[in-house]
Automatic annotation (TrEMBL):
InterPro entries: Nucleotide-bd_a/b_plait_sf, PPIE_RRM, RBD_domain_sf, RRM_dom. Gene3D superfamilies: 3.30.70.330. The keyword Transmembrane helix does not apply. The keyword GTP-binding does not apply. Keywords: Isomerase, RNA-binding. Residues 131-147 have a biased composition (Basic and acidic residues). This is Peptidyl-prolyl cis-trans isomerase E. Residues 8-86 form the RRM domain. CDD domains: RRM_PPIE. Residues 129-172 are annotated as: Disordered. One of its GO terms (molecular function) is isomerase activity.
Length: 172
């Protein structure tokens, strides 16, 4: 995937626990007008995750801030400052925050319909295969029964043969 950087938003990593959005704003305001400052929170601890984002109104201001603040020290920690990548939406087909969450709804419904159709066709195919196997088994059973009847018709009963021979010997 080709990720486009946001030239006016900076990623600021290596933040100390004491740093909040107000302090981060104060550290970057000398470079130009700031549109937004965010420090994403950890859901478990409700503290920021040691990084934040600073969005400037002008790209040139963001470039100047990155040049000056990358490697700088804030509250005893060395900062890493780079251009930010766009935020990704979890679960979205395209994955970009610039798109509304319902943007891939049509393709999702199409995929669901295709999957349901495939499952229906597979079920029909399996049912047809079972019916064909059952028919084949019945034909084989009928053929075996027919062979057994023929064998019994062609073979004489050994007791009947013995009685017939005994009668022949008595009459002779």
């Amino acid at each position: 995937m080709n990720l486009q950087v946001q030239k006016n938003t900076l990623y600021v990593g290596g933040l100390a626990e004491e740093v909040n959005e107000v302090i981060l704003h104060s550290a970057f305001i000398p470079f130009g007008d700031i549109k937004d400052v965010k420090t994403p929170l950890d859901q478990a601890t409700q503290k920021h995750r040691s990084f934040g984002f600073v969005t400037f109104l002008e790209r040139e201001d963001a470039a100047a801030a990155m040049d000056n603040m990358d490697g700088a020290e804030l509250y005893g920690r060395v900062l890493t400052v780079n251009y930010a990548f766009p935020e990704r939406i979890k679960g979205g087909e395209q994955g970009w925050a610039a798109q509304p969450i319902w943007a891939d709804a049509d393709t999702w419904f199409e995929r669901q319909q295709q999957e349901e159709e495939m499952q229906r066709l597979q079920a029909e195919q399996q049912a047809a295969m079972k019916a064909a196997e059952e028919l084949h088994r019945k034909k084989l059973a009928e053929e075996r029964e027919g062979e057994k009847e023929e064998e019994t018709e062609t073979k004489a009963d050994p007791m009947a043969v013995a009685e017939a021979e005994a009668l022949k010997q008595q009459n002779a």
